[in-house]
Hints:
Its EC number is 3.2.1.132. Keywords: Glycosidase, Hydrolase, Secreted, Signal. The structure is a single chain. The protein is mainly α. The protein has a single domain (about 5-20, about 45-280), classed as Up-down Bundle (Chitosanase, subunit A, domain 1). The chain is about 50% helix and about 5% strand. The chain has helices at about 15, 20, 35-45, 50-65, 100-110, 120-130, 140-150, 150-175, 180-195, 205-210, 225-240, 250-260, and strands at about 80, 90, 95, 270-275, 275-280. A 3-stranded antiparallel beta sheet has the order 1-2-3, covered by helices on one side. Strands 4-5 form a two-stranded antiparallel sheet. The protein is globular and about 50 Å long.
Amino acid sequence: MFAPHRKSKTVAVGALLGAALLAVPVAAHATAAPAAPAAAATAAKATGLDDPAKKDIAMQIVSSAENSSLDWKAQYKYIEDIGDGRGYTAGIIGFCSGTGDMLDLVEYYTQVKPGNVLAKYLPALRKVDGTDSHQGLDPNFTKDWAKAAQDSEFKKAQDHERDRVYFDPAVKQGKSDGVGTLGQFMYYDAIVMHGDGTDSTSFRNIRKRALSKAKPPAQGGNETTWLNAFLDARVWAMKQEEAHSDTSRVDTAQRVFLKKGNLNLNTPLDWKVYGDSFHIG
C-alpha cells in the first residue's frame, strides 16, 4: 500500500515529457524460434537495467518504497487516494488521475481494447487531470480498476506505459551518460517519483543540478562521484515537498549500494526503506 509520503509525480507529466522520449518504442514480446539473430541482437542491447533480470530487481526495489512489498506484480489492481493532492494513485508505478499518466494509460488501454471497463471514465479523467478531484470517477472507478486489473491486456498496458514514460527514458539517459545499471536505476527511481517535467524538482532538473557539481562518465567524470552528486540533487528535490521529506529510499537504499561499489546492482542486495528491511538474494 502506498503511504502519503511515498508518492509523487510532476503534474501533467505525460504532457510535459519531451516528444523524443515519449516516442521510445516498447520491445515486442519474445516469440518462439526462428528469429535467432534478432533475439541475439536484442540481448546484446540489454546491457544494463534493461536486462530482464535487472529490470525485475528494479521493479522490486521501487515497490519496496512505493508499496512496502517486493511483490510488484501484485500491484496492478492497487488503487487509492493517498491524500497527496494528485487524486487517485494506482497500478504498478503509481499512475495518478491528477498527473496525466493515468489518463494516458486508460487512453492506450482503450486503443488496444475498445469498450473496456475503464473506457467510460475517459471524459472524467480528462476533466480531473491536474487536480485531485474525483468528479465523474466515484463511486465505482476503484472497483472497475480492480476488475480491469484481472485483464491481461490491462496489465500489458500498464507495463507499456511504465516503459514508455519512465523506464525507457531513464535507461536511455543513463546509457547516454555512461553510467551502469545502478546509475540507470537511480535515474528510473527519480523519474518515477518526480516525473520529467519542467519544474525545479523534475528529473531533468535534478540531473541539471548535479551537473553543476560533477560530470558523468560520458563527459570524463568519475562514475561514483557523479552518482553521489546526482543523489545529493535528488535529496534536495525530495526535501522541497513534505510528501517526500523521508529520503530513506536514497539514504538507506541507493547510497548503500553505491558505497559498496555495486555499480552493476548485483545480488545479493540488502536495504531499508522507511525503516523496513528488504533482501533480494
